[in-house]
Amino acid sequence: MVLQIPIDPNPVDSLIWGFHQSGIITINSAYHLASAAANVTSPSSSDPNPFKIWWKTLWTLPIPPKIKHFTWKAFNHNLPCALNLFHKKVLNEPFCHFCGGDPESVTHVLIDCTRARRVWKHSKFKNFHNDHRRVYIKEFYLQGIHLIPKEDLPLFQPINEFSSQSSVKCIIQEDTRALSVAAALDHDNCVTGLGFVFKIGLHRVVTSTKIHKPGASTPIFAESQAHLDGIAWCLSSQLKLEFMFTDCLNLVSKVNGHWKDQSTLSSLVLKIRHSFSNFPDASLKYFPRQFNANAHSLAKCCSEED
């Protein structure tokens, strides 16, 4: 099995740091190695939280887990808004596509954007939004816990997600030609399924396909392979590609940025960058998973086939 793993012949051999996946020594990895050798407990992310009441209230609300995770990401400013993607060098500018002038921070897209305001205006939380729309998202959530009746909190959280989705959908125009790619892993049977859906606009499916591959590595390696095979499929099918969409933000930031190290993943990322030379006007974009459901269904179905 090990001997069948293909090795990239292009990079020259070099010494690597074996205690980090990048192959490059960092202060962080060296510290953790030294701590482990000295039998010292490493720092933990589970330190006491100053927002304990808020967290406890959130996780006990009768709402879907995806809403809880969305809220958690919003609270920590970890949503893929334009400002965050700009800092990751995924986008060339941080400004909101709909307002024009303001940077699209998490606070802006969920509270103060014109589209977000429209959502809040037609909800039962209109007055709360009017009173608190000029505060940061953390303060907005904290005030919500204290001022909104407990029985209404399950409705309060999904409105934040809906205001985000309404902005994302408008990125795709009616004539946008885009490929959505996805990968699904089945470690039990050691197989990977890849799914590809080519659309014009948000809903018109032109064609689709799936690929069954032996072996199951890690999600980002599988997504990388999906990107390479997806571009190859577009070439062989003579499909004009304007955008490629994926919900793997980590891979998007690596491909669109200047990331490079001595890992195998770095070689794959370089190949993806080179493959886009076949479509000079195309670009790789991040989209949340709910807009990539068709490709994910194909990938999952393919991974479950015998």
TrEMBL record:
- Extract the GO molecular function terms from the UniProt entry: nucleic acid binding; RNA-DNA hybrid ribonuclease activity
RNase H type-1 domain mapped to chain residues: 186-302
InterPro entries documented for this protein? RNase_H-like_dom_plant, RNaseH_domain, RNaseH_sf, RVT-Znf
One Pfam family name is RVT_3
Q: Please state every residue range assigned to the domain named Reverse transcriptase zinc-binding.
A: 46-120
Q: What is this protein called?
A: Reverse transcriptase zinc-binding domain-containing protein
